[in-house]
Specification:
Blueprint: H1 12-28, H2 31-60, H3 62-70
Length: 84
Protein backbone atom coordinates (compact mmCIF):
# COMPACT_ATOMS: atom_id res chain seq x y z
CA UNK A 1 0.00 0.00 0.00
CA UNK A 2 1.40 3.36 -1.05
CA UNK A 3 0.37 6.52 0.81
CA UNK A 4 1.37 10.14 1.14
CA UNK A 5 3.88 11.77 -1.16
CA UNK A 6 5.03 8.39 -2.45
CA UNK A 7 1.87 8.29 -4.58
CA UNK A 8 3.29 11.19 -6.61
CA UNK A 9 7.05 10.54 -6.77
CA UNK A 10 9.23 7.61 -5.68
CA UNK A 11 11.85 9.72 -3.88
CA UNK A 12 10.05 12.70 -2.33
CA UNK A 13 12.69 13.44 0.31
CA UNK A 14 15.53 13.57 -2.21
CA UNK A 15 13.41 15.75 -4.52
CA UNK A 16 12.60 18.11 -1.63
CA UNK A 17 16.24 18.47 -0.56
CA UNK A 18 17.40 19.30 -4.08
CA UNK A 19 14.45 21.69 -4.59
CA UNK A 20 15.31 23.54 -1.37
CA UNK A 21 18.96 23.91 -2.38
CA UNK A 22 18.07 25.11 -5.88
CA UNK A 23 15.48 27.50 -4.42
CA UNK A 24 18.12 28.95 -2.14
CA UNK A 25 20.42 29.32 -5.14
CA UNK A 26 17.76 31.37 -6.91
CA UNK A 27 17.01 33.52 -3.87
CA UNK A 28 20.62 34.18 -2.98
CA UNK A 29 21.88 34.23 -6.55
CA UNK A 30 24.87 32.00 -5.83
CA UNK A 31 25.91 29.72 -8.70
CA UNK A 32 27.83 27.48 -6.29
CA UNK A 33 24.54 26.33 -4.77
CA UNK A 34 23.34 25.31 -8.23
CA UNK A 35 26.50 23.25 -8.69
CA UNK A 36 26.05 21.75 -5.21
CA UNK A 37 22.40 20.90 -5.96
CA UNK A 38 23.34 19.26 -9.26
CA UNK A 39 26.10 17.20 -7.63
CA UNK A 40 23.76 16.16 -4.85
CA UNK A 41 21.11 15.12 -7.37
CA UNK A 42 23.73 13.07 -9.20
CA UNK A 43 24.78 11.38 -5.94
CA UNK A 44 21.13 10.65 -5.07
CA UNK A 45 20.53 9.24 -8.55
CA UNK A 46 23.52 6.90 -8.35
CA UNK A 47 22.49 5.69 -4.89
CA UNK A 48 18.88 5.08 -5.94
CA UNK A 49 19.73 3.28 -9.20
CA UNK A 50 22.67 1.26 -7.89
CA UNK A 51 21.39 0.23 -4.47
CA UNK A 52 17.86 1.25 -3.51
CA UNK A 53 15.85 0.10 -6.54
CA UNK A 54 17.52 -3.34 -6.88
CA UNK A 55 17.08 -3.95 -3.15
CA UNK A 56 13.39 -2.99 -3.27
CA UNK A 57 12.85 -5.14 -6.34
CA UNK A 58 14.34 -8.17 -4.58
CA UNK A 59 12.31 -7.48 -1.45
CA UNK A 60 8.90 -6.69 -2.97
CA UNK A 61 9.06 -8.21 -6.47
CA UNK A 62 6.09 -7.57 -8.74
CA UNK A 63 4.50 -5.08 -6.35
CA UNK A 64 7.55 -2.84 -6.62
CA UNK A 65 7.68 -3.30 -10.40
CA UNK A 66 4.07 -2.04 -10.66
CA UNK A 67 4.86 0.90 -8.38
CA UNK A 68 8.01 1.74 -10.34
CA UNK A 69 6.12 1.59 -13.65
CA UNK A 70 3.37 3.92 -12.38
CA UNK A 71 5.26 6.45 -10.25
CA UNK A 72 8.16 8.52 -11.63
CA UNK A 73 11.54 8.54 -9.91
CA UNK A 74 12.20 12.32 -9.85
CA UNK A 75 9.45 14.41 -11.49
CA UNK A 76 6.17 14.16 -9.54
CA UNK A 77 2.89 13.02 -11.12
CA UNK A 78 0.05 15.49 -11.28
CA UNK A 79 -2.44 13.02 -9.82
CA UNK A 80 -1.86 10.46 -7.06
CA UNK A 81 -1.24 6.84 -8.04
CA UNK A 82 -3.64 4.32 -6.59
CA UNK A 83 -2.58 0.70 -6.45
CA UNK A 84 -5.06 -1.96 -7.50
Amino acid sequence: MVTGLYRYVRNPIFVAVVAIILGQALLIGDWRLIVYGALLLLAFHVQVVAYEEPTLELTFGKEYEAFRAAVPRWIPRMTPWRSE
